[in-house]
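User: Show me a protein chain along with its predicted structure.
Assistant: Here is one chain, sequence first, then structure tokens.
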Amino acid sequence: SAGTASVWVIIYLAVSNRLDASIFVWWLAVIVAGKVGAELISKMTPPSSTTTTT
């Protein structure tokens, strides 16, 4: 998925360019929060409504 791909990109940048650890943790938190948020929204959204997810 796109989320997993972005995680690998960040890991690659962290290893190759010595990315700041705080930036790495911040991006990881953003990705995890996005996944959790999407899960919560999909659960709160009634099945009758058709929503497009990216």
